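REQUEST ID: PR-0412
SUBMITTED BY: lab tech R.K.
PRIORITY: routine
TASK: structure prediction, single protein chain
INPUT:
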Amino acid sequence: MGKKLVIVESPAKAKTIGKLLGTGYVVKSSVGHVRDLPERTLGVDIEHGFTPNYVLTKGKVKVVAELRKAAKTASAIYLAPDPDREGEAIAWHLQEVLADTAEGKPFYRVQYNEITARAVRAAFENPGAIDMNRVNAQQARRVLDRIVGYKVSPMLWSRVRRGLSAGRVQSVALRLVAEREREIQAFKVEEYWVLGANVCRQSPPKDPFMVRLSKVDGEKASVGSEGAAKALLANLDGCALSVSDVRTREVSRRPLPPFITSTLQQAASSVCGFSPNRTMGLAQKLYEGVDVGEGGAVGLITYMRTDSVNIARDAQAAAKDFIVATHGERYYPETPNFYKSRSGAQEAHEAIRPTDVTRTPESLRNVLDVPALRLYELIWKRFVASQMAAAKITQKSIDFQPAKVGLAHAYTFAAAASEVVFDGFLKVMALNIHKKKEEDEEEEVDEVDRLPPLAVGDAIEVLGWLSDRKETKPPPRYSEASLIRALESDGVGRPSTYASIIETLNSREYTMREKRQLTPTELGLMVNDLLVAKLDALFNVGFTAEMEGDLDHVEEGNVEWTQMMQAFYARFSKWMELAREPPADMKRVGAMLALLAHVEQWAPGIQRGKRTYSDDRFVTSVREQLTKGEKPVTDKQAETLAKIVLRYRSQIPDVEAGLAAWGYQELIESDKAMASNEETTQRFETLDMIVLSDSQVEFISSLREQVANGRKLSARQIAALDRIIVQNAVQFADFERIRKKIGLIHEKPSHEPDHESPALLEMLQQVTDWQEPVMRGKRTFDDKEFYASLAGQYARQQTLSPRQRGAMRRLVFRYKAQIPGFAQYAEKLGMTVPAFNKGN
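STATUS: complete
OUTPUT:
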């Protein structure tokens, strides 16, 4: 009788589970999905119940062949992918692919929340069947996403550029980022002043502390100008203060719940600086198994894609024993802590926690690498703290009033401080315990570290008045952590999708990471503006959250997935119909084609990537489109014809009159505002005088070709040329003369003297053995190429940015063994080892 075949989705997981199960089982990996929708076609039969046309995933022919071979000799097949919708779908696809080969052998679905001997054995002792409701929910999500992407993306190709993509959830996330950017751009900064004083008791202890003006005439203090601030301080000059009110209260600070996917990604971003994608990669390794020595490979954390804060009873009991043994009885609450998951969470799942609470981060210090250890420590501390007693904090708030007769206003100053009287869970996990501003509390109170003992009536000496000018701030850009928080709060996406959503936005160059913030690129803003203008209802937060709810109903078995799809597609079709370009005025199109009939010599086509852009070919295609009558000519096509007319004005009589008669006056004016041939030629001649980077040469060559084919440069293209000239200003002997001659608006950039880059480049010049390039996602990181590009840039510009210098410092440290005199260089530049080890 053959062995039992177990199939999981990753090789690492297969290795760990194979060791746990021992003989009698053969454990193999599917290496992710084995079937999916085809890459280049819709792959969904909309007319016949949205039937998907699944094909083997690219590169999986060999994997599937091996699995079929194993299934043929096995006594039973156990499908053990992850315990979520995607894992259930992988299990179903595997069963569908292997059913014929298995020849009637039983299939079992096995699920476990942690990869430990106890959990895995229990799962195999109680196998189940595939949950088709869960599979159908995943099928519905996949088909939804395919239809939206396949039908909407061509709209971006025709109106922005080819190759762009729209996504059902991705585009909503982009909308949040773009709308926040618009808020920031529209924000009007206002200045205000914060007034206060440095004070102390008139008798010991006389340690100084700060008070802040909180009220004027009983209303919240609002000082909107420097004049008003000076007037108030002049009125207060010479005052002492006295204590008018002392309020003390003891509050309990409960620990935070254990991590779910979204909160783990947020915390890892804030505390460790990890991207969501990196966090999930590290968590996957901790979940799938790590060799801890004598015990062999074991999963260190529970399943990391979850939205439930539930904790298994045995894990809770183990946490109690650990807390009491380590910290004492009083650190465990009278009744165990329970946390409520948000509505719609998968309650059958657990929160993310260590599989063995006694396996402390310290015990794994020589087992895990630094990033994995940091993430494990974050998870371990959060879980242990979540099971501990609340912290007890005394909050003291004190009001002060001036002791002076004849003041113009009634003033109230305030100070506050918090003191931990019982640390509770704070013993394990430090948190900011300072008093938070209550929603209904008007005055803002800045807490001080400590307040001296004070009672009502105590006299307070003013050591100096304070006046601090501040400015209102726009809402901050989303960080990866705060975007995940917003998506979760709005009910958009699910635990398994947050990291991939953000990664897609970055890889598509719709957003870029800047100091942990997500900034929409110009391309991202263009894409968002178009999608919102044309399909606002589809890419609406509320509608997307509604669809997530519908998918939940499918998983719960309350609705058939095809019914859900029919309801969606009815609305989607109407929205797409409304988004279509209106047909152009045929008389206007005819007039443009008549003008273009005068053209006898067409400019050669321009090659961009794999495509060739030809005016002649475009005009011919519009004529053919009109002749066939199958598809109307759009307004955009008509406008493109008008632009081509302007381009060939030298061959067409009365161009401007002809265009103006058909409503293209604005286009004529726009063309006149574009750079003249003389302005363009001056810039090209100036750039011929200097050394440029390969990318700059390639960009300028494309503009030269554009001009040679009769296309004027736009204002943005001229501005790009100007920026290149200014960036390389150091190469011109008399930059100021050149700037005035060609009418550059930009001044020569002023830089702090860059004394660091020459030394760093000199050090790297001595490196002979460079590390091999590394692929991360779609990007290649090549140390040697990076050094060469910086050396070239420095040669042209005589300066590098602080960020580039920081990257070079890290590079230098990586290759220090190959750099003679490294220690002397490092001392001269003030480089220390700890600075380079941060985040590694």
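NOTES: Confidence is low (pLDDT under 50) at residues 436-445, 833-840.
REVIEWED BY: pending
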